From TrEMBL:
SMART domains: CO_deh_flav_C. Keywords: FAD, Flavoprotein. Residues 1-231 form the FAD-binding PCMH-type domain. This is Periplasmic aromatic aldehyde oxidoreductase, FAD binding subunit YagS. InterPro entries: CO_DH_flav_C (IPR005107), CO_DH_flav_C_dom_sf (IPR036683), Diverse_Substr_Oxidored (IPR051312), FAD-bd_PCMH (IPR016166), FAD-bd_PCMH-like_sf (IPR036318), FAD-bd_PCMH_sub1 (IPR016167), FAD-bd_PCMH_sub2 (IPR016169), Mopterin_DH_FAD-bd (IPR002346). PANTHER family: OXIDOREDUCTASE (PTHR42659:SF1), XANTHINE DEHYDROGENASE SUBUNIT C-RELATED (PTHR42659). GO terms for molecular function: FAD binding; oxidoreductase activity. It comes from the Bacteria. SUPFAM superfamilies: CO dehydrogenase flavoprotein C-terminal domain-like, FAD-binding/transporter-associated domain-like.
Length: 338
């Protein structure tokens, strides 16, 4: 690990001031926020990330960044709430099972106790070509160097949202649930607070996979806002190589509004198969207003994965992704909801 300076922020405004850099330095900025540090510290040890300055936000006293507030209009979750705190909240377990299940199936209990939700959505890919600096070809790590995964060992890589410059998979579990629930992200910058749809937080790789989000220099995520919707009949299903502490080969976050067996509304987020948290708009459009049957779910899954672009080792993800989505839809339909 290389030398770095360390600053401690006591409130959101001071954190933003310490981390802000000129707009021209957006891509090359070496200032990083650190909360739980469960991803950043690992990448620093590997010398994949080499920040010159860390701004510690774990001591911020702003109360609204540490709270979970549920009202008639929805849910507000502070960005410094830990994964463990949210998934053990009994009211959220009851009313938002899609959120708590996605957190429960992520990482270990020790990591969930440390990791903060703001940092969770910004975690970097688990692509071995990105995390191992002995590989020189990684456009995320060294822009313009190429992508070794394209013709390398790519069993765990993405089949949706890819480009000729990057096929790295977004690894998180909670983000697909957030995108399915039409969440918004509250962001603090030197110019004040703003909100953006969670679906606009992450960027497809395109020709610039090293630019992963639409956050600006010094932007600090302060909260997630989730409007009331079909969250009671919801779940998260994750398929992985082993049952405990493993990243998804395919996952589906599903929320349904059923009238009888007809879908008045359906929300679907996919994980493990795409370069960003993936909203399954094609599948939703095919299902909305229709009877939810196994054949209807299968047709919707076929439609969603029609644009999949597998490369060699990850070809089985096409079938796996479809079956995971169908299973999640049918299990959500069968839920008993009070």
């Amino acid at each position: 690990m290389r030398p770095f300076s360390y600053q401690v922020a006591t409130d959101g405004a001071s954190a933003v001031a310490l981390a802000s850099v000129p707009a021209s330095a957006h891509v090359t900025s070496n200032v990083q926020f650190i909360g739980g540090g469960t991803t950043l510290v690992d990448l620093m040890k590997l010398e994949v990330m080499q920040p010159s300055t860390l701004v510690d936000i774990s001591s911020i006293r702003d109360e609204d960044m540490h709270k979970v507030v549920q009202t008639e209009t929805g849910l507000r979750i502070g960005s410094l709430v830990s994964m463990g705190q949210l998934h053990s909240d009994k009211a959220i377990v009851r009313d938002y099972p899609i959120l708590t299940e996605s957190l429960w199936r992520a990482a270990s209990q020790q990591l969930r106790n440390m990791a903060r939700l703001g940092g969770n959505v910004l975690q970097r890919t688990r692509c071995s070509y990105f995390r191992d600096t002995s590989y020189e070809q990684c456009n995320k790590r060294i822009p313009g160097s190429g992508c070794a995964a394209l013709d390398g060992m790519n069993r765990g890589h993405a089949i949706l949202g890819t480009s000729e410059h990057c096929i790295a998979t977004y690894p998180g579990d909670w983000a697909p649930a957030l995108i399915a629930l039409d969440a918004q992200v509250e962001v603090l910058s030197r110019s004040g607070k703003r909100t953006l749809p969670f679906s606009e937080l992450h960027r497809l790789p395109g020709a610039t996979p090293h630019i992963e989000t639409n956050l600006r220099p010094g932007d600090l995520i302060t909260a997630f806002i989730i409007p009331v919707g079909p969250q009671r009949r919801s779940l998260y299903r994750k398929i992985r190589d082993r049952e405990s502490y493993q990243f998804a080969n395919a996952s589906a976050a599903v929320a349904l509004d059923l009238q009888g067996d007809v879908l008045r509304d359906v929300r679907i987020g996919l994980g493990g198969v795409a370069t960003v948290p993936w909203r399954a708009h094609r599948a939703e459009a095919m299902l909305r207003g229709k009877r939810l049957t196994e054949s209807a779910a299968a047709r919707a899954a076929d439609e969603e994965f029609k644009e999949a672009r597998p490369r060699g080792h990850n070809a089985p993800k096409v079938v796996l992704g479809k079956r995971t989505l169908v299973r999640a839809l049918l299990e959500a339909k069968a839920m008993e909801v009070s």
